Amino acid sequence: MKIETIGVVGAGTMGSGIAQTAIVAGLRVVLVDVSETTLATSVASLNARLERMVQKGRLDGPSCAAAVQRLVASTDYRSLAGADVVIEAATEHAAVKVAILREIESTVAPHAIIATNTSSISITSLAAALERPDRFVGIHFFNPVPVLPLVEVIPGLQSSSETVDSALQWARQIGKSPIVVSNSPGFVVNRLLIPMLNEAFFILAEGVATAEEIDAGMRLGAGHEIGPLALADLIGLDVCLSIMDVLQKDLGDPKFRASPLLRELVAAGRLGRKKGRGVFQYNG
Ligand SMILES: NC(=O)c1ccc[n+]([C@@H]2O[C@H](COP(=O)([O-])OP(=O)(O)OC[C@H]3O[C@@H](n4cnc5c(N)ncnc54)[C@H](O)[C@@H]3O)[C@@H](O)[C@H]2O)c1
């Protein structure tokens, strides 16, 4: 399958990173969001990241200018009509995703692949909401998308082998290293990673150590590049909480209980870097 144009629905942390990676790799991207303001902010920060790549010598000026030209931002789903692959990277709620996926399906050509970047929702159950479930697959990127090479490709029960092959082809085309993972709550990485972050909130709430000490512990003692609480702020505390809730509900094991402190911070709107405050405070 020839993949030249990508649609990305949801211009938040992940959508913006996926769009950036794809335009730098030479693909055309249509980035869609419900909010004009979000789209404008997303494109501005994407351009700023490209500019930094140029300053650091990771991208030359003409390639940067050409990449920017390959991006179209829109609030109109109809602009996805020519896309070969459309990936949904919107808010982590099943009902929101189903509505978006149906909208995408009603717009794209029959040959197009529809994917979701969900962190935890069942690919099989999302596929069941579509007319062509065989063309649907999970393609799970990691944050920050332009930096982390891993992509988990998750076939649902209904995904055709051609769809899975196209997902693998697209991931490799944009420089990622895909692994194929069964449709299981949290897939591989989040099943391991998010409960570890959640435990850091329990440790913090119990007063075992300060946030800075917990993070230093895992950086200096476990060789992690970033501490668990700073990583939770980067991922988004709301995203971490919804993954814990899905793990507990779908795996039925109380060991996946979300930390009350994590829940409290989300209720307070302290969602992490994207809101300027999570466990830590961020300026600018
Ligand atoms: N943040 C991470 O580290 C991470 C990592 C891997 C996967 N994911 C997954 O990626 C998805 C997006 O996460 P995020 O962190 O980018 O979220 P985010 O909150 O930063 O962005 C979500 C975006 O979706 C948009 N949106 C909501 N409803 C929409 C609709 N109907 N149509 C179009 N756009 C709509 C919002 O306006 C927002 O811009 C989630 O499913 C999440 O689980 C997140």
What does this 3D model show about the protein?
This is 3-hydroxybutyryl-CoA dehydrogenase. InterPro entries: 3-OHacyl-CoA_DH, 3-OHacyl-CoA_DH_CS, 3-OHacyl-CoA_DH_NAD-bd, 3HC_DH_C, 6-PGluconate_DH-like_C_sf, 6PGD_dom2, NAD(P)-bd_dom_sf. The chain has helices at 13-24, 36-55, 61-69, 94-107, 123-127, 161-173, 189-205, 211-222, 228-235, 237-251, 260-267, and strands spanning 5-9, 28-32, 71-74, 85-88, 113-116, 136-141, 150-155, 177-180. It has 284 residues and is α/β, with parallel strands linked by helices. It is globular. Helix 4 links the parallel strand 4 (85-88) and strand 5. An eight-stranded mixed β-sheet has the order 3-2-1-4-5-6-7-8, with helices on both faces. It is built from eleven helices and eight strands. The mean pLDDT is 96. Bound molecules: nicotinamide-adenine-dinucleotide. Nicotinamide-adenine-dinucleotide binds next to helix 1, helix 4 and strand 6. Nicotinamide-adenine-dinucleotide is lined by residues 9-15, 32-35, 38, 89-92, 96, 100, 117-119, 140-143, 235-236, 239, 274.
Given the helix and strand composition, which structural class is it? alpha/beta
* Tally of domains: 2
What is the C-alpha radius of gyration, as a whole number of Å?
19 Å
The CATH architecture term of the largest domain is 3-Layer(aba) Sandwich
The percent of residues in helical segments reads 40-55%
List how many beta strands DSSP finds: 8
Largest sheet: 8 strands, mixed
Shape: globular
Task: Give the N-to-C terminal Cα separation.
Answer: 43 Å
CATH topology type of the largest domain:
Rossmann fold
Strand-residue fraction? 5-15%
Fourth-level CATH superfamily of the largest domain: NAD(P)-binding Rossmann-like Domain
CATH class of the largest domain: Alpha Beta
Number of helices, where a helix is a run of at least 4 consecutive DSSP H or I residues: 11
Query: Low-confidence segments, ≥5 residues, pLDDT <50?
Result: none
Q: Which cofactor or ligand species appear?
A: nicotinamide-adenine-dinucleotide
* SSE pattern: EHEHHEEHEHEEHEHHHHH
The overall pLDDT average reads 96
